[in-house]
Amino acid sequence: MNGGDAKLAPAKGARMTDIDLVLSTLGRVAEKAGDIAPDVYCRWYAACPESRAVMAHVDEHMQGRMMAEVLRLVLTPVLDDERSYLKFETKSHAAYGVRPEMYAPLLSALSASVREALGAEWTPADEHAWQARLDGLVTEITVAC
């Protein structure tokens, strides 16, 4: 196996963690659907209409960078280590009109896009893992604000 064939599953006998499951779903979505960022943003704008105005100045490239950062945070094992970063980001985003309650709908839009892209492949374990990761991230964002 070469370096590009990394497996997304844990070693035999090991229990998949929430992060392992979330990473696995993202890998499967990348194969099936490619870039889901446009769908995530459409869902976010529908769930949180004021987000469209906040994002009006942001081009597609920057949206992609922002989504990559959201995914990095979703996959960060210990969110406590991100508190300073989250405090900085939430403060800088507030200057653009982003309110604390706008983050949860974005994260929900992300999980909904992944769920829809996977269709019947989405499992209850995937749902649990995503919900646990997003709940933890929303908690940390709330603390940071």
Walk me through the topology.
Elements: H1 18-33, H2 37-47, H3 50-54, H4 60-74, H5 83-94, H6 103-118, H7 124-144
Helix pairs in contact: 1-7, 2-6, 5-7, 6-7
Describe the overall structure:
- This protein has helices at 18-33, 37-47, 50-54, 60-74, 83-94, 103-118, 124-144.
- Helix 1 packs across helix 7 and helix 5 crosses helix 7.
- By secondary structure, the protein is an all-alpha fold.
- The model is unreliable at 1-14 (pLDDT under 50).
- It has a single domain, classed as Globins (Globin-like), CATH 1.10.490.10.
- The termini are far apart.
- It has 7 helices and no strands.
SS-derived structural category: mainly alpha
Rounded Rg: 16 Å
Measured by DSSP, the beta-strand proportion falls in under 5%
CATH architecture verdict: Orthogonal Bundle
The general outline is globular
CATH top level is: Mainly Alpha
The average pLDDT score comes to 88
Domain count: the total is 1
Q: Poorly predicted ranges (pLDDT <50, ≥5 residues)?
A: 1-14
CATH superfamily: Globins
Query: How widely separated are the two ends?
Result: 45 Å
CATH topology (level 3) name: Globin-like
| Helix share bin | 55-70%
Major sheet description: none
Structure at a glance:
The chain has 145 residues and is mainly α. Helices cover 66% and strands 0% of the residues.
